[in-house]
Amino acid sequence: MGQKVDPRVLRLGITRTWDSNWYANKKDYVAFFHEDIKIRECVKKSYYHAGISKIKIERTSPSSVVIIIYTAKAGIIIGRKGAEIDNLRVKLEQLTNRKVTVKVQEVKDFSKDALLVAEGIAASIEKRVAYKRAINQAIMRAMKAGAKGIKVMVGGRLNGAEIARAEWSVEGSVPLHTLRADIDYALATAHTTYGALGIKVWIFNGEILLAKPSLEDAEELKIGKEGGKE
User: Fold this and answer.
1) Do 78 and 69 contact (CB within 8 A), yes or no?
2) 64-71 and 99-106 strand pairing
3) pLDDT per position in the chain (230 positions), as tens?
């Protein structure tokens, strides 16, 4: 058995940042952590059809929460004249007993978003589309959208087989061991008459390179090295 690590966790602090940005003491940390889970579950369950990619949570103070929702269909969450987003804010305030601010960011390249791609494949399989066709269509759309590489794996009772198995398809380059590589990863589940199928998606969006040092920084570094030799 291989030892597998979520590529997003592996790159925290290198090419990715945390989805929850706040600080709490030992007394409040656990309460805030479980509250974040409840907020994400509530939003995702209520607006699953809106294609929610990511939910970021920021706490400017113990009594206020800022929630940023990244979605492919911002109009569904905002609603007519902002009515839907107001209902969501009230619902979350009742859930957390804090002042909640909800912001919506639209995901334009949803064909390159791993979670939306995985959920799209799961929805196609649930509509009785052949899993190989659903995978090939998702890969084709991602590569057309500008992805450098994509890997999709489906596991379970494929085509109703008695013995579960896993199959995967790769297009382009997906460097999982390169820390500067921008790898987006997601997991989704398709519920079929034969049981649940797990879909994993890795999307490589290119490398994130650190900025090159300026001439002044290079001169200071050179002087520092020369001083160290003396």
Assistant:
1) no
2) parallel
3) 456 788 888 888 888 889 999 998 888 899 999 999 999 999 999 999 899 999 999 998 888 999 999 999 999 999 888 899 999 999 999 999 999 999 999 988 889 999 999 999 999 999 999 999 999 999 999 999 999 999 999 999 998 899 999 999 999 999 988 888 999 999 999 999 999 999 999 999 999 876 655 555 555 555 554 554 44
